[in-house]
């Protein structure tokens, strides 16, 4: 080939390659609405931290995952505290005991967490307010309780602001992927439910609700960035959810109620799919003994059992859609019980809860409403025991008290009746005995093949040998 | 003609040495044992498993690159080949290859490759260390059976599910080992390169170097270099994909595999993209079930069928211009897709290698008790990966276009070149744009 010809060819090839890159950039999808990389999910997740690994020398929770979870517990209890106070104000005396429970739980969480510096001043305010609130609740002094709850609420809002605006982003690189996946999923779920409630209030005329919902939607955007890229199917669902957020934000900004409801519906659908993906993953994931996973599993378990409390009666009253929801709650509960390596402190109540789930699962499968009604109460009773055991042993479960050994919950896992979801990609690994059996069979086959081949070779060789004279 | 690399004394000595490729085989065998051990008894989560990282983040992405640079050299040092050789040495019965394997081997390979890819999606081979380990054990059993009863590397030539892909990709390889016809015409050594001699065995891949015109079955194991008494073998460099321009006897099954691989690459890409959920949901509407097995299988079959159908369409149009039958057109021009196949395959895996590559070191260090860090596993940033992907895809498209042109030119002379070429050029452009679009979308990771 002549040199000029070759040069022309090289130039053509280079131009074509340049065009290829240019064309690729043209057809490339638009950038994500947030600062998320378009190839999200390139973070290697960390291995779950062993139980008590980071906290044995301290008496406070320090890991980012546990702090995130503690934050959820804190805000959720503060929210309940507020509503219980409102009920008390309206004359419901039974709400006082519930408010006391909330206040005690807030105290447990506040005391046992090494809160980040930026949050610490507000947790101190909550602590001080609790010092007023608890005696006020004890003495049924509403006048003293109300300003204390107001301080707690204001502090909670300030904590929330710092939490989502700076703290979460600052710890992303040091989180444990399996636990963070579960915690972020839970946080997304709670946020979306809150937004749902707020939009519901808005539809009834509350004009503050869209403003708060908008803030919560921003927090959703922050949260989606936090989802570790551990399981592809989960990441894909988070992306799907993320794509619905700009529309929700826009409709909330425009104060368009109908559009907001529509946008929220899309986000809710994505959340539902994310839930499916998460539980399918959790079902096949190895049992996790990190304190954050144990706590998150409790939190999610309690959430599912609370939903069950609503969904089963709703189905009994004739709402057929609630049946599926209740079955999902049961599936999720079974998966969660098997997902974490629970400490002995909580195990007995979990075993009881687990055994009480089976009749309810059967009742729902048979669509037997009488049996369902009868089977629900033991589940709820046992779930209350789980909650008591949880808060009674918060330090143990958080990995900062060392008097209990976390044990594998394989017995819990294997005895569970878990209906498998079909919306997944990965078949669960077979149990260990089956793995051993399969490897054994293959090895035996190999040995037999080699033996037979060796035998055949030797006999054929003998036949071929000339007779000795 | 390019210079003979074997005139380099050092290289000839290395290849002719009795330690080649034995030492490399030993190394890969040790690594293979480590991988199987990790997959079967190591961490059950893929992202923590060193075996998964080595297999799917390192080996699998490097494999197609290896085929382009070194042909089927991997097959020479593949632990399965080593195992087959060992079993054969001690208990081998050396029975001839059954006729049906010779006749239908490539179809069996095609079917196995498609089946394993399908099962990876529904059973999670890549995402499950245990699944990967079981696959390797099953292959080991197949290799032992083949080595124990049949001649040479029957497994590698007629049964290995990667054999078809390796053969096709290696045709685009830049290294070619061929015999010098002038020297061979005077050879008195009774085909020592094929039959073997006191210097060594015959070609393990059943190739007769004197007549060999393709890289498809040459593993560069150098057995022929050792046995040839006349030093007739030459190792030359050639432009990538050059072999595709002059396929003397195009085979329908090989062309079929080439176009099916395009479908497999498409489905591999699509299932890792966010659009996959939307596609699944649409499908659920049509099928009335959310059973992943059913819906994925339908998608998979469609993804296989679309490229085959498009090539078929191109052949229907092209035959109007070049007068060849549909089957002839399909067989001749199916090979032209191979460079784009390789590019799409490499492009897809470049993402996994560059985007998750640090996981290899991280999981490796975890074997010694180091915690897996939370920092990014990416070796380079996403925009850089995408530019690399577009460049590779551009190279592949150019390679395919030129191959289609060269095939048309060599088959039809000057008269019907452009009409035939145009049909296939449009097809290649469609495949190229489709892949380009898919690479532009956010993709999920493997570990």
Describe this structure in words.
The complex is a heterodimer of chains A (469) and B (447). By secondary structure, chain A is mainly alpha-helical. Chain A is built from 16 helices and no strands. Chain A starts with a helix and ends in a 5-residue tail after the last helix. Chain B has helices at 9-16, 22-41, 50-70, 73-77, 79-91, 99-123, 129-149, 154-159, 163-170, 181-184, 192-195, 223-227, 242-245, 252-270, 275-287, 292-322, 326-334, 338-356, 358-366, 382-412, 417-439, and strands at 175-179, 196-197, 200-201, 233-237. The longest helix of chain B has 31 residues, at 292-322. In chain B, 67% of the residues lie in helices and 3% in strands. The relative contact order of chain B is 0.12. Chain B starts with 8 loop residues before the first helix and ends in an 8-residue tail after the last helix.
Feature tags:
heterodimer, A: 469 residues, mainly alpha, Four Helix Bundle (Hemerythrin (Met), subunit A), 3 domains, 0% strand, B: 447 residues, 2 domains, two-stranded antiparallel ribbon, two-stranded antiparallel sheet, 4 strands, 3% strand
Task: Note the topology.
The complex is a heterodimer of chains A (469) and B (447).
Chain A: H1 3-27, H2 64-89, H3 94-112, H4 117-138, H5 142-171, H6 177-203, H7 209-226, H8 232-253, H9 257-284, H10 291-316, H11 321-339, H12 347-366, H13 369-392, H14 394-397, H15 410-414, H16 432-464
Chain B: H1 9-16, H2 22-41, H3 50-70, H4 73-77, H5 79-91, H6 99-123, H7 129-149, H8 154-159, H9 163-170, E1 175-179, H10 181-184, H11 192-195, E2 196-197, E3 200-201, H12 223-227, E4 233-237, H13 242-245, H14 252-270, H15 275-287, H16 292-322, H17 326-334, H18 338-356, H19 358-366, H20 382-412, H21 417-439
Helix pairs in contact in B: 2-3, 2-5, 2-7, 3-18, 3-19, 5-7, 6-14, 14-16, 14-17, 14-18, 14-21, 15-16, 16-17, 16-21, 18-20, 18-21, 20-21
């Amino acid at each position: 080939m002549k040199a000029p010809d070759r040069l022309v060819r090289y130039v053509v090839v280079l131009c074509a390659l340049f065009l290829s890159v240019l064309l690729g950039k043209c057809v490339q999808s638009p950038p994500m609405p947030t600062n998320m990389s378009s190839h999200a999910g390139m973070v290697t997740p960390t291995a779950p931290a062993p139980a008590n690994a980071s906290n044995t020398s301290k008496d406070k929770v320090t890991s980012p995952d546990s702090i995130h979870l503690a934050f959820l517990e804190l805000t959720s209890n503060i929210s309940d505290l507020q509503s219980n106070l409102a009920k008390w104000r309206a004359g419901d005396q039974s709400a006082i005991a519930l408010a006391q429970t909330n206040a005690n739980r807030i105290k447990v969480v506040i005391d046992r967490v090494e809160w980040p510096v930026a949050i610490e001043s507000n947790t101190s305010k909550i602590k001080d307010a609790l010092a007023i609130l608890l005696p006020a609740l004890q003495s049924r002094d509403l006048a003293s309780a109300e300003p204390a709850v107001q301080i707690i609420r204001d502090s909670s809002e300030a904590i929330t602001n710092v939490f989502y605006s700076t703290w979460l982003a600052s710890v992303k690189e040091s989180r444990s992927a399996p636990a963070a996946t579960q915690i972020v999923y839970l946080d997304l779920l709670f946020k979306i439910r809150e937004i749902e409630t707020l939009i519901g209030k808005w539809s009834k005329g509350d004009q503050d609700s869209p403003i708060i919902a908008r803030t919560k939607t921003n927090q959703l955007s922050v949260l989606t960035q936090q989802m570790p890229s551990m399981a592809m199917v989960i990441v894909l669902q988070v992306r799907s959810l993320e794509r619905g957020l700009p529309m929700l934000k826009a409709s909330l900004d425009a104060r368009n109620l109908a559009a907001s409801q529509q946008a929220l519906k899309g986000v809710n659908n994505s959340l539902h799919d994310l839930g499916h993906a998460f539980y399918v993953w959790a079902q096949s994931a190895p049992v996790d003994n990190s304190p954050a996973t144990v706590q998150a599993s409790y939190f999610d378990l309690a959430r599912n059992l609370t939903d069950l409390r609503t969904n089963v009666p709703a189905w009994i009253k004739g709402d057929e859609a609630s049946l599926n929801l209740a079955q999902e709650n049961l599936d999720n509960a079974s998966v969660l019980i098997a997902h974490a390596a629970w400490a002995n402190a909580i195990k007995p109540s979990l075993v009881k809860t687990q055994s009480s789930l089976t009749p309810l699962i059967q009742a729902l499968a048979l669509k037997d409403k009488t049996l369902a009604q009868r089977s629900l109460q033991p589940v709820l009773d046992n779930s209350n025991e789980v909650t008591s055991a949880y808060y009674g042993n918060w330090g143990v479960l958080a990995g900062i008290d060392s008097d209990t050994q976390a044990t594998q919950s394989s017995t819990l896992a294997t005895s569970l009746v878990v209906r498998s979801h079909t919306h997944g990609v990965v078949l669960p690994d077979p149990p260990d005995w089956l793995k051993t059996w399969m490897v054994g069979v293959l090895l035996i086959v190999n040995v037999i093949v080699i033996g037979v081949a060796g035998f055949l070779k030797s006999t054929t060789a003998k036949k071929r040998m000339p007779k000795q004279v | 003609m390019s210079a003979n690399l074997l005139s380099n004394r050092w290289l000839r000595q290395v290849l002719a040495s009795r330690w080649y490729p034995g030492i490399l085989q030993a190394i890969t065998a040790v690594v293979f044992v480590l991988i199987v051990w990790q997959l079967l008894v190591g961490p059950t989560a893929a992202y923590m498993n060193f075996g998964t990282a080595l297999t799917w983040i390192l080996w699998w992405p490097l494999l197609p690159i290896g085929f382009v640079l070194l042909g089927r050299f991997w097959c020479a040092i593949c632990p399965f080949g080593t195992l087959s050789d060992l079993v054969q040495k001690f208990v081998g019965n050396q029975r001839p290859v059954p006729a049906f394997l010779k006749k239908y081997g490539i179809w069996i390979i095609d079917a196995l490759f498609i089946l394993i890819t399908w099962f990876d999606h529904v059973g999670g081979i890549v995402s499950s260390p245990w699944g990967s380990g079981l696959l390797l054990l099953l292959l080991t059993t197949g290799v032992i059976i083949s080595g124990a009863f049949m001649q040479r590397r029957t497994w590698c030539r007629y049964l290995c599910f990667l054999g078809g892909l390796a053969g096709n990709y290696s045709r685009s390889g830049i290294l070619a080992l061929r015999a010098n016809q002038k020297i061979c015409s005077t050879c008195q050594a009774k085909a020592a390169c094929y039959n073997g001699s006191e210097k060594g065995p015959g070609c393990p891949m059943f190739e007769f170097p004197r007549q060999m015109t393709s890289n498809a079955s040459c593993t560069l194991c150098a057995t022929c270099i050792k046995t040839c008494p006349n030093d007739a073998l030459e190792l030359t460099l050639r432009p990538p994909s050059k072999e595709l321009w002059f396929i003397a006897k195009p085979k329908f099954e090989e062309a079929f595999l080439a176009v099916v691989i395009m479908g497999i690459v498409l489905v591999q890409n699509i299932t890792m993209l966010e659009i996959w959920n939307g596609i699944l949901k649409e499908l659920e509407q049509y099928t009335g079930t959310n059973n992943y097995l059913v819906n994925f299988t339908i998608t998979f079959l469609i993804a296989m069928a679309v490229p085959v159908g498009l090539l078929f369409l191109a052949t229907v149009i092209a035959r109007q211009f070049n007068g060849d039958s549909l089957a002839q057109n399909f067989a001749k021009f199916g090979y032209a897709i191979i460079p784009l196949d390789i590019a799409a395959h490499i492009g897809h895996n470049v993402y996994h290698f560059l985007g998750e590559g640090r996981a290899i070191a991280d999981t490796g260090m975890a074997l010694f008790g180091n915690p897996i860090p939370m920092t990014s596993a990416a070796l380079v940033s996403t925009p850089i990966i995408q530019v690399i992907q577009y460049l590779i895809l551009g190279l592949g498209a150019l390679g395919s276009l030129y191959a289609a042109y060269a095939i048309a030119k060599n088959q039809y002379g000057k008269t019907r070149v452009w009409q035939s070429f145009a049909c296939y050029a449009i097809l290649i452009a469609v495949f190229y744009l489709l892949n380009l679009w898919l690479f532009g979308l956010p993709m999920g990771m493997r570990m």
